[in-house]
Amino acid sequence: MERTSISRLSTAAVILSLLAGMGSVFAQADGGDQFLDGIGETAMIARYVFNGNAQDWSRNNYHASVHGADVAYVEDSQFGTVLSLPGSRAGGYVQIPGESLIGSDAISVTGWVYLRAVSSWQRFFDFGQDTTQYFFCTPIGDDPSEGYRARISADGWANEQGPVAPRVPTGRWAHLAVVLDPAAQTLTSYLDGVQVAQATDVALTLEHVLDQQNAEANLVSIGKSQYAYDSDLNAKVHDVRLYRVALTARQVATIRNNALSEVETPISDAMASDSDEPVRPTEAVMFPLAAHLIGVPDIEVQTTVGRLPRLPYTVAATFRDDAEGPRVRVIWPAPPDNSQVRQAGTYTVTGTVPGTSFEVKAAVTVKAAPAVTGDHPQNNLKPFGLGQVVFNQDEAGRDTPFIKNRDKFILTLAETDPDSFLYTFRDAFGQPQPEGVRPLRGWD
């Protein structure tokens, strides 16, 4: 019986840790804790420096391909070797693997562009399937006052949504950034690290414009439009990055500023402000009701000697104008050991409300443990079936990332050819492969 319990618990622990930690295992090869410009590397989909090739510098290996006879790598006084796209309707462009964006809803695209011509509707990037489903950015539209456009549509140009701003200057390097934030329902454009326009009530995500099942149906490109009559990009291009999170204004500015300095700006300095708000360097999305939150009360918790306290996942909060609002999430620090509960007494734990500057203090009272009856330790661990594990939707009735990761893992696992899983092992030991088998991309 003991072996059965341990086995069942171990199986549950493995599956839950896979779901919680792997992100989207089959869509992207995530993992690790490296940082670039203060942003966790797991937030990055792909990075193309274009210093002589179109290789992906992220861990995901979404290497791009360059198309066009006149495309070249040239020397630039500011960034060294960069990509040069010649423009015209058949000039040249960069094609990114269609599977790179599958499973993403939020996205941030940043990059350096040196525009050489004012041909209308050149594309910085264009992600989609055709002329009805797409997400693009053009630095030069017809109207100079509204030429810098980021647009998304699932039903053609008449139903496009997105911000507009004056044209991006030509004849110099400009840092462009476009951020699609489904949680806030915003689409924001930046120029040289500064927000220049934002559209609100944008309900569309990448999942609305990209084929989630057939990667070959997705046209993910830099420098080329879905519309055949639009000109290709006539510009030099450097360090294009794709993130699967909605970058904040500070993070966009940090990426731009670090590229212009020989020494990378520490994230604590790059994100500092004149206010007393604590710096949260890896926070990608702010708590949506933060502007209305005015207080979070401290709490009291009791435990017994030898047992770490159970701190609440959420606590009640006070909102402006006595408005009713949801309980707020609190992140508590992980204790390094159990030294604080080895004897009776009191101590304080301070947690934070993510996306805000509010802190919550938990006053913990440690009471003497009750006398143990019997002559053996009491068994408090009970086996449970995986069918008892339930994932709840969030307060808005939406699937949480945990639910999405579970579904992607299980559904993709069910559809995957077992021989594809064994491809790497057979290859490593020199064993023949079954006819027609292909390796998995990124993770196998």
What does this structure look like?
The protein has 444 residues and is an alpha+beta fold. It has 3 domains: 1-30 and 390-444, no CATH class; 34-270, Jelly Rolls (Sandwich), CATH 2.60.120; 290-367, Immunoglobulin-like (Sandwich). The protein is 14% helix and 28% strand. It has 7 helices and 24 strands. It has helices spanning 2-21, 206-209, 249-259, 267-270, 401-415, 418-421, 423-428, and strands at 35-36, 39-40, 44-48, 65-67, 72-76, 80-88, 93-96, 107-115, 125-128, 134-138, 148-153, 164-165, 173-181, 186-191, 194-200, 219-222, 232-243, 293-295, 299-304, 314-315, 318-319, 328-329, 345-352, 359-367. The strands form 6 sheets. Strands 3, 5, 6, 8, 13, 14, 15 and 17 form an 8-stranded antiparallel sheet that branches. A hairpin with a 6-residue loop joins strand 23 and strand 24 (359-367). It is globular, with a radius of gyration of 26 Å. The two termini are 34 Å apart. The model is unreliable at 1-33 and 262-286 (pLDDT under 50).
Give short descriptive properties of this protein:
single chain; 444 residues; alpha+beta; Jelly Rolls; Immunoglobulin-like; 3 domains; eight-stranded antiparallel beta sheet; 7 helices; 24 strands; 28% strand; globular; disordered N terminus
